[in-house]
């Protein structure tokens, strides 16, 4: 599995970025992750579209979209379903219609495989979350079992800690003192 300190793998994938006819799809590449503007990226994976736990997570990330934006962080959701399945799901699920971030389609499963998050039996992605710095380096990884949804507030807490570039004690939250050595 790709881990902390490693470069996020190269990719070029189609993503659903809109429900507007003719503007539904865009190509996202790994070049999107590296920048001179000090913009971070959080990419989170779910196992399957049209399931039960997954939309609760996607909706919660969407509710917190402005929190990520306020931290100069791009948000990308991803699964191994196709862009057409993503689009159909967004059109048919009330909580997904107004997403503010792209839904990446890893239909070939190559990126999930490169990341080491492909479940071996069903060949679907685990619930994995990656925080990537502006140089394209993975700074945090968290992987949940297929049946357990993640905690978006914890993703934000870790992002805050990473962005301080300081030592953050257990249970540290933004605004609290960091450690001095």
How would you describe what is shown here?
With 181 residues, the protein is α/β, with parallel strands linked by helices. The protein is 25% helix and 22% strand. The protein has five helices and seven strands. The protein has helices at residues 53-63, 65-70, 83-92, 110-115, 152-164, and strands at residues 12-16, 25-29, 40-45, 73-79, 103-105, 127-132, 138-144. Strands 2-1-5-4-3-6-7 form a seven-stranded mixed beta sheet. The radius of gyration is 16 Å and the shape is globular. The termini are far apart. The model has no long low-confidence stretch (mean pLDDT 96).
Distance between the termini: 32 Å
Total number of beta strands: 7
Name the shape in a single word: globular
Which secondary-structure class do the elements indicate? Answer: alpha/beta
Report the average pLDDT across residues.
96
Q: Report Rg.
A: 16 Å
SSE order, as H and E? EEEHHEHEHEEH
Helix coverage percent of residues? 25-40%
User: β content, as a range?
Assistant: 15-25%
What strand order characterises the main sheet?
2-1-5-4-3-6-7
Which runs of at least 5 residues are low in confidence (pLDDT < 50)?
none
How is the main sheet built? 7 strands, mixed
């Amino acid at each position: 599995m790709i881990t902390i300190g490693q470069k996020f793998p190269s990719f070029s994938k189609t993503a659903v970025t809109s429900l507007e006819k003719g503007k539904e799809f865009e190509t996202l590449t790994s070049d999107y992750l590296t920048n001179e503007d000090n913009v971070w990226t959080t990419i989170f994976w779910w196992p399957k579209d049209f399931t039960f736990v997954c939309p609760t997570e996607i909706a919660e990330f969407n509710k917190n979209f402005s929190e990520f934006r306020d931290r100069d962080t791009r948000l990308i959701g991803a699964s191994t379903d196709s862009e057409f399945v993503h689009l159909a799901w967004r059109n048919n699920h009330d909580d997904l219609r107004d997403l503010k971030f792209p839904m990446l389609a890893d239909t070939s499963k190559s990126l999930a495989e490169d990341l080491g998050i492909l479940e071996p039996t069903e060949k679907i992605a685990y619930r994995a979350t990656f925080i990537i710095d502006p140089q394209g380096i993975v700074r945090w990884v968290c992987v949940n079992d297929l049946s357990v949804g993640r905690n978006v507030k914890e993703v934000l807490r870790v992002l805050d800690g990473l962005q301080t570039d300081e030592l953050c004690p257990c249970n540290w939250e933004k605004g609290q003192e960091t450690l001095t050595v």
